[in-house]
Specification:
Blueprint lengths: L22 H7 L7 H22 L11 H14 L1 H9 L3 H12 L10 H9 L5 H8 L3 H21 L1 H9 L19 H7 L4 H28 L3 H15 L9 H6 L7 H16 L2 H4 L6 H4 L2 H11 L4 H4 L14 H16 L5 E4 L17 E4 L20
Antiparallel strand pairs: 1-2
């Protein structure tokens, strides 16, 4: 429609769903309009399948998978993903939520060099605004270069959309972004945000806005504290999932295809092996079964219709993940006066210096004559070359070391 001179925000799909993303998303996807519809459907589905497999590879960092054989981590994660309602919804409706989660994880799991972290999330935020919550997390946890990179990338992508699509940008940023009702009936069970739960409870609009804002911000604040603690404990995967869950609660609309973060939460460790297995089973049941519609008309409807929202709140604020309570013995605090990113740079430099430094060599002095039994011998002396040593790097690593116990 955009290539034909129409407006992005006048478009409606076969199910009457409108285009609700920022103009940069339309600009990025516009070349697909040059292809026939059937080939695009096939290519998009194949690409989504590949992205889900890529997400399963990233999800191997989940603590809960450490009790599984390493060779089974990715298959277990992939099986969970493909059987879940959020991934099924992404495939059914051709959504981009799984791809956005992957972009965020690429930055949060320290896969890219420090100077490039945040770029992927900046692009994701220009496609859909919700990933911007991770900028707050990075800033609070001391990863301020990553936060700045994300903001700069988001601004650049948005500015590009303004240059190419000025009328669409004006319409979105000053009109459509505030029109939440245009996305459909947001009071249905498919929307598991706090705002939707208050709608289902029949709260008046004036009180709903206040309650959603106050309670939502409180949940986000608690999640940021927990995520920062997990990051300091060198568990960036857990930290990312906690922030993602808080974003689902706070966003006005959190459809089923947005809820990928809750599926990933099932891969986190809770207490011992038994606790982790119980948690995995509970999350799997909630995210695979149509739990939000099973209790319709029953006395428990208020709970079942908001089950995934309650799960998101629990992940963000309450569940005692092992990542929050356990620290490794070799974990070294960030030096005073340095940010986390600066410390990571220093650690990387120390690692390079260590690799290029010869190991210490000890040379024993050879006595010039054999001491007589009656003469006290002078102890052999030794000299040590290259005694400089460097502490091991404790930051900047994306793969956590195994935990025992």
């Amino acid at each position: 429609m955009l290539l034909d001179g129409g407006s992005l925000y006048d478009f409606a799909a076969w199910n009457d769903a409108p285009f609700t993303y920022p103009p940069f998303a339309g600009l990025l996807l516009a070349p697909l309009g040059l292809l026939a519809e059937d080939p695009v459907r096939i290519l998009w589905t194949a690409a989504t399948l590949g992205v889900v497999i890529g997400l399963a590879v990233l999800a191997r960092h989940g603590e809960g998978l450490r009790m599984v054989k390493p060779t089974l981590c990715v298959p277990v994660a992939a099986l969970l993903m493909f059987s879940s309602a959020p991934v099924s919804s992404n495939l059914r409706f051709g959504q981009v939520s799984v791809a956005l989660v992957v972009l965020v994880l690429v930055d949060c799991l320290n896969i890219t060099p420090v100077r490039y972290r945040g770029l992927a999330t900046g692009i994701a935020s220009a496609i859909k605004l919700t990933p911007m919550i991770f900028v707050v997390y990075w800033w609070i946890s001391g990863q301020r270069r990553t936060a700045a990179n994300a903001i700069a990338t988001f601004s650049a992508c948005t500015a590009l959309a303004w240059l190419v699509l000025p009328h669409e940008s004006l319409r979105f940023w000053f009109t459509e972004i505030w029109n939440v009702d245009r996305v459909g009936n947001i009071a249905t069970g498919g929307n598991q945000s706090l705002n939707a739960a208050l709608l289902r409870l029949g709260i008046s609009d004036s009180w709903r806005i206040v309650l959603a804002g106050v309670i939502g911000l409180a949940i986000v604040a608690i999640a940021m504290v927990r995520a920062s603690r997990a990051y300091r404990n060198r568990e960036p995967f857990a930290a990312t999932v906690i922030v993602g869950a808080a974003g689902l609660v706070f966003s006005p609309v959190s459809w089923t295809h947005h809820q990928v973060w809750l599926v990933l939460a099932g891969l986190l460790a809770v207490g011992n092996r038994r606790g982790t297995m119980i948690w995995f089973g509970l999350v799997t049941a909630l995210m695979v079964l149509p739990i939000t519609s099973l209790g319709a008309g029953l006395p428990t409807e208020v709970l079942t219709s908001n089950a995934r929202l309650l799960l998101a709140v629990a992940v963000a604020c309450a569940v005692p993940f092992a990542a929050l309570t356990v620290r490794r013995a070799d974990d070294v605090a960030t030096p005073a006066g340095l940010s986390v990113n600066q410390a990571a740079d220093c650690a990387d430099a120390r690692c390079k210096a260590t690799r290029h430094t010869r190991p210490p060599t000890t040379v024993a002095a050879i006595p010039t004559s054999t001491p007589s039994p009656t003469t006290s011998s002078t102890p052999a002396t030794s000299t040590s070359r290259n005694e400089t040593s460097f502490p091991p790097s404790t930051t900047g690593s994306s793969k956590p070391s195994p935990r025992t116990g």
